[in-house]
Structure to design on (1071 residues):
C-alpha cells in the first residue's frame, strides 16, 4: 500500500495547492512603465505623466523632471511610457473618480487626437491652472505662443493642450541636386516642380535618383496639395472639398508625378531608404524629415521650404499640428503637473527650446525665433524655420473632429488604386470614392 | 495494475474523433463504478490540467458564447454575459462586404498555398530520401527545416528586406537577368497577395517535408527491392508504393494544414500592422477580425469571435471532408 | 544481364545529378533570405546602397551589431533579449515539469476518471478555437496577468497536448520490471516516479524542452496582444518596431537597413544554434509527438 495515499492527505494537498495558486495570482504586479526618473516612489505629491516613447527618446523630459523635483521639495514627477489602451484605462478611472495619472502627452492639436481627448472628457481646461501657477514660464506661455497654435489648442474659449513644438508639411529638398539642374530655389508652383523633377530625372538617371516623393498619409501628400489650392479646403460638413475641381486637379497632379516615374511607385514605396541612400532629391513631409537629411548629408545639402502650390500662391497653407501635453480630468496634483509643464516647456527654458529645434521640430514661441534661431549664430542653419512659422501663421487649422483621419483611411485605399500602373480609375472617380466612403463612415460615428 | 486499459486509450485514439467521443461518453457513464485507485494520480496531473483548463479550455468555451454577443471591450455595459444578442452578429456578418471580401482573399490564398506547399514538401522529402549519404541527407534536412524554427516575425521581416523595391536582392538579381522594371513585390495591389504566398510556403513547407520523410523512412526497404526486381521504374515505385503507404502522413498533413488559412501574422508582419497591404488586397479574414477586435472602434470582440467561429466551422467541415475522403479511398 | 545493370547504374547517375540539383535549388530558396540578411548586417551604408549590391560584403564591419546592442536610446534590443530569455526559460521549465508529471500519471497510474480526462483533452483539440484570442484577452485582464511576463510564462506552457503525448509515450516505454522491483523494495509513488521512471525519459524531456523553447522564442501574435509596454516586449515583437533610421544620423557609415538586419541576426541566433546543435531531437519530437496525434 505504500504507493497509495489516503483520501484525506490528498484533499489536504489539493487545498494547499489551490491556496498557493490563489496567492500567486493575487501577488501584486510590478508597476509597469516606470522608466527610472531616479526618485523614490510614493513620496510627497506624486505626479505621474504618460508620454510616448518617441517623445521621451527625443526630448529630455526625464532630466527636467529630476531638476523640477530638486527645485520643488515634496513634489515627485515621474515620467512613464505610454501603452496601448491607456486611454480606455484612464477614462474608466475618471468615471470611477480615482485617477492615478496627472499629465499626458503627446496629442496633436488641429488633428484627431486633441479633439478626441477633449470631447471624451479625458483632459481638463488649463486656464485656471495657468493663472494660479507660480512658475515663471506659465504666464509667458500663452502670450508668447504663436496665435494659430494657441487657437488650435482652444475649444469653446478654453485652452487645453500646451504644444512644445509644431510640425507642418513642407518641401524638403537636396540643394546640391537641384543646383545641378540650375534650380537655386525650391519650386513655388506645380508646373515648375514638374519641370525641375523631369530635369533631375534626366540628370540623375544613371545614379537612379528619384526627383520627388510623398509620404503615405493624406495630410502629407494630396491633403497638402488640396490645402495649397483652396483658400478654404473644407466644406460645410468639415470634410475636405473632394468634389471641387481643385481637389481633382491635385489628384491629377499626383498621378502625373507617379506616371512620369518622378516619384517612387505609388508616390511613396520605399522613399526613406532611397532618401538615405542619396537617391531622393526631395520629399514632401514634416519639416523634421529635412533635419534627418541634414544630419545624414550635412546642413548645406538639404533644406526645407514651403510646399509648392497650384498657382504659386499660398492659399490655405499646409496641414500643421502642435505636439501637445495636457492635464487629465480629475487628475491628482493637477497644479503640480501644470507647474512641471511650464517649468519644462515654457519660453524661459531656453535649453529646452534649443533641444526641440535640434530635433527638427519648430518651436512655438516668438521669443525662440528672436533669441535663438535669428539671434544665436550657432542656429543659423535653422533659419528655414522662419518660413515654417510664417506658413503656419496663415494656414487653416483642421476642423475640430476626427473626420480627417477617417478620410485618411479611405484615401490610402483609393490612391493606390488610382496610381497603380494600368489603372483605369480617373481622378474624379477616386475623389468620389473617398468622399462617399468617408461620408458613410462619418454617418456611423457617435462622437 | 491492469496494463490493457492504457493501451486501449491508444487504440481508441487511432480510430478517430468519433471513437474518442463515444468512448468519452462511455467513461463518463461508468465513472461511478470506477475504483478511486492511486490518488497520487490527481496530484501528478493537477498542475497540467489546471493550467490547461484555465488557459486553453476556458477561452474556447468563452469564445463560443462571445460569438453570440455584442461584446465591446471599451463599453463596460456589454461585458460579461450582458452583451448576448442572439444571431445579430451572424446577420451582420452575412451583410458585411469587407468580411466576404476578406474571406474570398483567404480562400484564394489557401488555394495557392496548400497545393504548393504539399507539392514542394513531398518533392523535397522524396528527393532527400534518395540520398544515401547519411551526412548530406542530414544537411538537407536541417536546411529545409530551418525556416520553420525561425521566429515568424524574423522570417517575414527578412523577406521584407529581400522584397525591397530598390535595395532588395530579389530585384537586384532580376535586373542582372535583364529585367528593366522588376516588380513592386509588396507594394502593388496586384502582386501583394501572390507575393505573400512565397514567404508563407517558405516558412511552412519544412515541417511537412519532415513528416513525409519520416513516413518514407518508415516504409520497409524490402518492398522497394522487390519492386526493383520486378523491373518497376522509379516513377512507378513512387506511384505504387510510396504514395499509398504515405497515406497516413497525407491524412495528418491535410488535417493539420488544409482549409482556409487566415495568415494573420504573415499579413501583419509583411505589410506592417493590420492595413491588409496596398488597397487592402491582402486583407485576409484573420487580419480583419484582429483589427475588429483589437485595433478599431470599440474593440468589438463579440463580432470578431463570430467571424472566427465561422472560419473555424468552415475549416472543421473541410477537415471532416478530407478525413472521410482519404479514409473511404482506403476501403 | 550485365548490360542491364550497367544501364541501370547509368540511369542512377543521371538520377543522382537531377536529385542533387533540385535539392540545391530548394536549399537556395530556404537560405536566400537568411543569408541576404546576414550579409546585409555586415555592410556599411555605402555598400548597402550601391547601385548593384553584392551578396558577399567587400569590407565587412561589425559596427551594425555594436550600434544595435549599445545605442540604448534608439534600440532596446539587449532588454528585449533579456525579456525573451526570461519568458522562454520560465515556460520551458514549467512545461517540462507539468508535462512530465502528467505524462507519468496518464501512462502509469490508475485512478478514477483518468481516461475520461485524457479523452476530454483529445476532444478539446478538435473544437474550433473561435474567439480564443479575444477570450484570452478578457481572461488575462481579469487575472491581472496582462502586461506581465508571469502571465506569459503561465500561458505558453498551458498548451500541453503535444508535450503530454510525448511524455506519456516515453513513460509507456519504461520497463515494467524495474518498477515492480522498486515497489517490492517499498518505494512510494513519488520515489517510483523520481528515481525509477524519470531517469528513463530524459530524452523525452529534452524533446519537450526544445520544442517549447522554439515556440516561445518565436511567439508573436499572443505576445503582441498581451503586452502593451515597450519595455516588456520580447525580441520577436521588438524587431518589428525597430527604429533603424536612427542609425543614419547617429553614425556617418551605417544605414537602417544594415542595423535592422543585425538585429534580426541577433534575434534568430539562439534558435538556430539550438536547432543545429540538437537537430536529432527534432526528428524524434516529430515522430513521437505530432505523428501520434
Amino acid at each position: 500500500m505504500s504507493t497509495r495515499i489516503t483520501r484525506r492527505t490528498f484533499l489536504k494537498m489539493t487545498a494547499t495547492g489551490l491556496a498557493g495558486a490563489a496567492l500567486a495570482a493575487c501577488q501584486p504586479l510590478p508597476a509597469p512603465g516606470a522608466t527610472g526618473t531616479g526618485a523614490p516612489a510614493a513620496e510627497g505629491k506624486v505626479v505621474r505623466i504618460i508620454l510616448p516613447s518617441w517623445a521621451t527618446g527625443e526630448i529630455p523630459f526625464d532630466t527636467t523632471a529630476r531638476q523640477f523635483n530638486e527645485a520643488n521639495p515634496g513634489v515627485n514627477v515621474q515620467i512613464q511610457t505610454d501603452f496601448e489602451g491607456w486611454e480606455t484605462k484612464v477614462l474608466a478611472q475618471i468615471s470611477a473618480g480615482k485617477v492615478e495619472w496627472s499629465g499626458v502627452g503627446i496629442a496633436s492639436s488641429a488633428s484627431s487626437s486633441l479633439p478626441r481627448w477633449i470631447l471624451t472628457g479625458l483632459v481638463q481646461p488649463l486656464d485656471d491652472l495657468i493663472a494660479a501657477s507660480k512658475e515663471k514660464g506659465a504666464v509667458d506661455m500663452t502670450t508668447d505662443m504663436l496665435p494659430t497654435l494657441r487657437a488650435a489648442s482652444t475649444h469653446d474659449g478654453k485652452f487645453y493642450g500646451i504644444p512644445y513644438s509644431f510640425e507642418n508639411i513642407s518641401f524638403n529638398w537636396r540643394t546640391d541636386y537641384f543646383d545641378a539642374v540650375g534650380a537655386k530655389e525650391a519650386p513655388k508652383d506645380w508646373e515648375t516642380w514638374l519641370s525641375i523633377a523631369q530635369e533631375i530625372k534626366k540628370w540623375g538617371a544613371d545614379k537612379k535618383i528619384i526627383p520627388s516623393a510623398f509620404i503615405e498619409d493624406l495630410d502629407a501628400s494630396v491633403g497638402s496639395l488640396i490645402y495649397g489650392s483652396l483658400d478654404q479646403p473644407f466644406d460645410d460638413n468639415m470634410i475636405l472639398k473632394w468634389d471641387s475641381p481643385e481637389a481633382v486637379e491635385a489628384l491629377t497632379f499626383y498621378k502625373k508625378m507617379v506616371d512620369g516615374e518622378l516619384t517612387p511607385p505609388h508616390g511613396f514605396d520605399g522613399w526613406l531608404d532611397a532618401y538615405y541612400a542619396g537617391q531622393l532629391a526631395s520629399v514632401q513631409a514634416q519639416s523634421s524629415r529635412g533635419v534627418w537629411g541634414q544630419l545624414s548629408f550635412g546642413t548645406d545639402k538639404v533644406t526645407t521650404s514651403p510646399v509648392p502650390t497650384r498657382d504659386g500662391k499660398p492659399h490655405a497653407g499646409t496641414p500643421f499640428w502642435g505636439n501637445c501635453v495636457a492635464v487629465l480630468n480629475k487628475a491628482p496634483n493637477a497644479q503640480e503637473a501644470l507647474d512641471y509643464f511650464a517649468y519644462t516647456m515654457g519660453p524661459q527654458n531656453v535649453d529646452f527650446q534649443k533641444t526641440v529645434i535640434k530635433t527638427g521640430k519648430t518651436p512655438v514661441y516668438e521669443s525662440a525665433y528672436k533669441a535663438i534661431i535669428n539671434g544665436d549664430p550657432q542656429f543659423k542653419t535653422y533659419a528655414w524655420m522662419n518660413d515654417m512659422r510664417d506658413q503656419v501663421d496663415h494656414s487653416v487649422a483642421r476642423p475640430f473632429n476626427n473626420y480627417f483621419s477617417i478620410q485618411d483611411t479611405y484615401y490610402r485605399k483609393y490612391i493606390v488604386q488610382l496610381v497603380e500602373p494600368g489603372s483605369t480609375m480617373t481622378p474624379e472617380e477616386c475623389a468620389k470614392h473617398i468622399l462617399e466612403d468617408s461620408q458613410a463612415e462619418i454617418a456611423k460615428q457617435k462622437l | 495494475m491492469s496494463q490493457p486499459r492504457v493501451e486501449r486509450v491508444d487504440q481508441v485514439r487511432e480510430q478517430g474523433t468519433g471513437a474518442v467521443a463515444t468512448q468519452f461518453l462511455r467513461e463518463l457513464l461508468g465513472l461511478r463504478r470506477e475504483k478511486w485507485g492511486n490518488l497520487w494520480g490527481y496530484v501528478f496531473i493537477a498542475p497540467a490540467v489546471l493550467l490547461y483548463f484555465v488557459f486553453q479550455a476556458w477561452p474556447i468555451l468563452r469564445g463560443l458564447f462571445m460569438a453570440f454577443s455584442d461584446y465591446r471591450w471599451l463599453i463596460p455595459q456589454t461585458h460579461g454575459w450582458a452583451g448576448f444578442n442572439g444571431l445579430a452578429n451572424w446577420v451582420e456578418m452575412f451583410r458585411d462586404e469587407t468580411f466576404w471580401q476578406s474571406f474570398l482573399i483567404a480562400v484564394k490564398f489557401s488555394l495557392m498555398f496548400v497545393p504548393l506547399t504539399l507539392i514542394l514538401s513531398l518533392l523535397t522529402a522524396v528527393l532527400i530520401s534518395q540520398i544515401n549519404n547519411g551526412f548530406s541527407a542530414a544537411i538537407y534536412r536541417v536546411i529545409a527545416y530551418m525556416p520553420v524554427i525561425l521566429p515568424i516575425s524574423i522570417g517575414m521581416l527578412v523577406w521584407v528586406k529581400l522584397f525591397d523595391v530598390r535595395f532588395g536582392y530579389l530585384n537586384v538579381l532580376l535586373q542582372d537577368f535583364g529585367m528593366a522594371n522588376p516588380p513592386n513585390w509588396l507594394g502593388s495591389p496586384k502582386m501583394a497577395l501572390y507575393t505573400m504566398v512565397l514567404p508563407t510556403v517558405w516558412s511552412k513547407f519544412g515541417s511537412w517535408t519532415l513528416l513525409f520523410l519520416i513516413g518514407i523512412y518508415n516504409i520497409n526497404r524490402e518492398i522497394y527491392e522487390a519492386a526493383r526486381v520486378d523491373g518497376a521504374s522509379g516513377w512507378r515505385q513512387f506511384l505504387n508504393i510510396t504514395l499509398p503507404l504515405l497515406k497516413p502522413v497525407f491524412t495528418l498533413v491535410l488535417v493539420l494544414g488544409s482549409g482556409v488559412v487566415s495568415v494573420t501574422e504573415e499579413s501583419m508582419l509583411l505589410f506592417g500592422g493590420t492595413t491588409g497591404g496596398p488597397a487592402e488586397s491582402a486583407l485576409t479574414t484573420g487580419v480583419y477580425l484582429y483589427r475588429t477586435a483589437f485595433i478599431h472602434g470599440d474593440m468589438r470582440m463579440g463580432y470578431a469571435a463570430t467571424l472566427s467561429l465561422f472560419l473555424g466551422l468552415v475549416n472543421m467541415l473541410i477537415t471532416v471532408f478530407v478525413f472521410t475522403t482519404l479514409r473511404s479511398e482506403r476501403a | 544481364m550485365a548490360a542491364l545493370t550497367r544501364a541501370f547504374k547509368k540511369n542512377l547517375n543521371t538520377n543522382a545529378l537531377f536529385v542533387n540539383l533540385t535539392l540545391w535549388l530548394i536549399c537556395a530558396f530556404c537560405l536566400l533570405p537568411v543569408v541576404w540578411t546576414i550579409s546585409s548586417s555586415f555592410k556599411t551604408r555605402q555598400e548597402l546602397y550601391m547601385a548593384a549590391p553584392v551578396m558577399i560584403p567587400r569590407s565587412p564591419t561589425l559596427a551594425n551589431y555594436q550600434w544595435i546592442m549599445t545605442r540604448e536610446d534608439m534600440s532596446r534590443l539587449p532588454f528585449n533579449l533579456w525579456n525573451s530569455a526570461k519568458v522562454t526559460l520560465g515556460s520551458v521549465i514549467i512545461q517540462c515539469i507539468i508535462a512530465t508529471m502528467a505524462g507519468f500519471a496518464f501512462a502509469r497510474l490508475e485512478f478514477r476518471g483518468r481516461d475520461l480526462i485524457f479523452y476530454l483533452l483529445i476532444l478539446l483539440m478538435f473544437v474550433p478555437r473561435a474567439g480564443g484570442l479575444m477570450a484570452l484577452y478578457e481572461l488575462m485582464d481579469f487575472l491581472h496577468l496582462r502586461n506581465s511576463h508571469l502571465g506569459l510564462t503561465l500561458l505558453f506552457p498551458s498548451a500541453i497536448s503535444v508535450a503530454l503525448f510525448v511524455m506519456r509515450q516515453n513513460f509507456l516505454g519504461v520497463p515494467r520490471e524495474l518498477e515492480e522491483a522498486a515497489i517490492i523494495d517499498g518505494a512510494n509513488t513519488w520515489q517510483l516516479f523520481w528515481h525509477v521512471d524519470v531517469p528513463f525519459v530524459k530524452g523525452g524531456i529534452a524533446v519537450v524542452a526544445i520544442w517549447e523553447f522554439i515556440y516561445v522564442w518565436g511567439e508573436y501574435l499572443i505576445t503582441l496582444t498581451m503586452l502593451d509596454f515597450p519595455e516588456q516586449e520580447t525580441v520577436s515583437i521588438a524587431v518589428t518596431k525597430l527604429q533603424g533610421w536612427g542609425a543614419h544620423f547617429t553614425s556617418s557609415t551605417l544605414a537602417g537597413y544594415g542595423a535592422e538586419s543585425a538585429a534580426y541576426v541577433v534575434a534568430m541566433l539562439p534558435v538556430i544554434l539550438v536547432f543545429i546543435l540538437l537537430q536529432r531531437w527534432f526528428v524524434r519530437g516529430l515522430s513521437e509527438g505530432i505523428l501520434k496525434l
In short: The longest helix of chain A spans residues 7-26. The two ends of chain A are 71 Å apart (CA to CA). Confidence is low (pLDDT under 50) at residues 1-41 of chain A.
